[in-house]
Design a protein that fits this description.
CATH class: Alpha Beta
Mean pLDDT: 80
Shape: globular
Number of strands: 8
CATH architecture: 3-Layer(aba) Sandwich
Helix content: 25-40%
Largest sheet: 6 strands, parallel
Distance between the termini: 7 Å
CATH superfamily: Flavodoxin domain
Strand content: 15-25%
Length: about 220
């Protein structure tokens, strides 16, 4: 019986595991709040990241920035990006991070989405906001990534981001059963566009699996 349960445990683990080198974080951050969100993910995983950097920086003054964001949306603008990401063929899952501006994704996110082949990809949005939640951002992403599967967004108020690391780790662990793969080969991608990060694995799922396995042995 124990051997049978052990085999079931191994099969479940193999079936659900997602290789971390198949996941990519793409994010844009003006104030640093969304970048903090992305850094919490990177700190507790082996996931590669790419930061969207505008060719012309957005104004530091909040009201000036909002006026510009509103103008970009009204004019359906495509703000230029420094070294835009163009090849994500190696990745299956995209964690897309952005602030919420007037209830929508920033137009610079649209610029990046339109440069990528997202057919067959799965997108998990995460965002920071000032109280609006996800707004219309999910429908925005679906519009500009028509070939992708877009999951529910994970919003956090930007004013609270510094105290939300534990919550973000919980979301990461609940959403992904990650298999941390040492053979992280990005040879198919333009590696100049991607920032590689060191491995600082989260062991929560691993600990839970061993706890479950030990419990089954005790019961049977």
């Amino acid at each position: 019986m124990k051997e049978f349960l052990f085999m079931i445990f191994l099969l479940i683990s193999m079936k659900n595991a997602i290789k971390s080198d198949k996941i990519l974080i793409i994010y844009f951050s003006r104030t640093g709040n969304t970048e903090t969100f992305a850094n919490y993910i990177k700190k507790n995983s082996n996931i590669t990241s790419y930061k969207i950097v505008p060719s012309t920086p957005y104004p530091e003054d909040y009201n000036t920035m909002l006026n510009l964001a509103q103008e970009e949306r009204k004019n359906n603008s495509r703000p230029e990006i420094q070294n835009p990401l163009t090849n994500i063929s190696h990745y299956d899952i995209i964690l897309l991070g952005h602030p919420i501006w007037y209830g929508h994704i920033p137009n610079i996110i649209i610029t990046q989405l339109e440069k990528l082949n997202l057919n067959g990809k799965t997108i998990y949005p995460f965002n920071t906001h000032g109280g609006s939640g996800v707004g219309s951002s999910i429908s925005d992403i679906k519009e500009y990534a028509p070939g992708a599967t877009v999951k529910d967004g994970y919003p956090i108020n930007g004013n609270q981001i510094k105290s939300k690391e534990e919550e973000i780790i919980d979301w990461l662990d609940d959403t992904f059963d990650i298999d941390y793969n040492d053979d992280n080969d990005d040879s198919d991608d333009n590696t100049d566009e991607i920032t590689q990060i060191s491995k600082t694995n989260s062991f929560r799922n691993i600990k839970f699996k061993y706890f479950l396995l030990i419990s089954l042995f005790i019961l049977f």
